[in-house]
Amino acid sequence: MTEKKDFHVAVVGATGAVGEQMLKTLEERAFPISTLKVLSSSRSAGKKIQYNGKEYTVEEATPDSFEGVDIALFSAGGSVSKQLAPEAVKRGAIVVDNTSAFRMDENTPLIVPEVNEEDLHNHNGIIANPNCSTIQMVVALEPIRKAFGLNKVIVSTYQAVSGSGQAAIDELQEQTRAILDNQTYTPEVLPVKGDKKHYQIAFNAIPQIDKFVDNGYTFEEMKMINETKKIMHLPSLSVAATCVRLPVGTGHSESVYFEIDQEGINAKDIKALLSTAPGIELQDDPEQQIYPMPADCVGKSEVFVGRIRNDLDEPKGFHMWVVSDNLLKGAAWNSVQIAESLVKLKLVK
User: By C-alpha distance, which of 175, 238, 230 is closest to 204?
Assistant: First the structure.
């Protein structure tokens, strides 16, 4: 494939929270764009968006919108991706999809550039961006797997409401005000807008993200389990997940227990390894109470890791605390990173 200086780019879902972050990240990274299309549903068509000092009009996304497009970043919901991503590919675009529509499709690479960038060589037009919680965890685990092996992962997540969209952010703010003012309110969004019951999120913790499946896990938990195995090419890896929604605006946190293959490794070895790993910022000094927190990660692209310690009973077991901005590394930044990798590897026609 031939190298090219600038690219024709489309952003689908440009008026949503992640779409806005995608545009902001493309601008901050000075991604080489010759023409830009900002696309959305018919509801948002006609809105004006500023990008790089220029005003763009949002257009309704249709199959013909992708004529001449080189790279299309999708974040408009799984049904839109299923309908329009194949149409974009037919017209010559490479799609980076931020929904769950194609993640577990065996012909679609599931990419976190710090972990499995080389899998981009095997794409058939569509590349999937993993679940936000999966992304930050595998960035932290991959250097460990490479150096010491990996055979078991147990993760508990503490996820921000922005992972459920603007309506969940609004609900958290409205509920918090109502409770502080001794007013009544009716939850309508969380844990899942389309589920049977809704619960208070303000001053609460909800141990359900997405709907439950027959095995007692939620779809979110199964995403983490299955995506981790796929991204790391470890189908026999033992993975368990419990996903919890907290009254935090932005920034997912995770308590990760993992077991390695190699003997004789201690927490200092893990810290030394992660201190130089790509995409990671180590914040780990218990004596000075230094550790990652979601309030500090907002607007930052790194995955922050701390509280690394040996398990007290399992010699090859360790614990760590992993935090990242779920709208950036968990979505928009990882998508733009994939686009940058496609350019770097000369995979864009």
Answer: 175
Question: What pLDDT does 4 receive?
Answer: 55
Considering the candidates 123, 243, 252, 297, report the single residue annotated as catalytic: 252
Mean pLDDT, the chain, rounded, equals 96
Alpha helices in the chain (DSSP H): 17-28, 78-90, 113-116, 132-148, 166-180, 219-231, 267-274, 294-297, 333-344
Q: What is the pLDDT of residues 288-299, one digit of tens each?
A: 999 999 999 999
What is d(CA 267, CA 247) in angstroms, rounded to the nearest whole number? 31
252 tagged catalytic: yes
- pLDDT (0 to 100) of residue 349: 78
Query: Residue 136: helix, strand or coil by DSSP?
Result: helix
* Catalytic-labelled residue, pool 8, 132, 243, 297: 132
Straight-line distance from the first to the last Cα atom of the chain, in angstroms, rounded to the nearest whole number? 6
